[in-house]
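FORM 7B: Structural annotation worksheet

SECTION A. Query
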Amino acid sequence: METDSETMASVIRRLRRAQGQIGGVIKMIEEGRDCADVVTQLAAASRALDRAGFKIIASGLQQCALDGNGTGDADRERLERLFLSLA
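SECTION B. Predicted structure
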């Protein structure tokens, strides 16, 4: 599954954001911050990771559609498994 550089740059930005949020969560826990604040930051990091994954999968689906070669069952099943792993 090939992806374009613009898509990958966007994915990397999302992953860096998630990395910062996770670092923030660790610091919050070490400082004994309120549980609700910690969970809010964890949820934000989780969403950032999910969006990065969905963007990669969407790019793969788009690439398959653009190829026009009628993706095989194996490719379709692989993309389906990847998608479901994030669901």
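SECTION C. Observations
The CA atoms of residues 8 and 34 lie 35 Å apart. The chain has one domain: 5-86.

SECTION D. Sign-off
Analyst initials: ____
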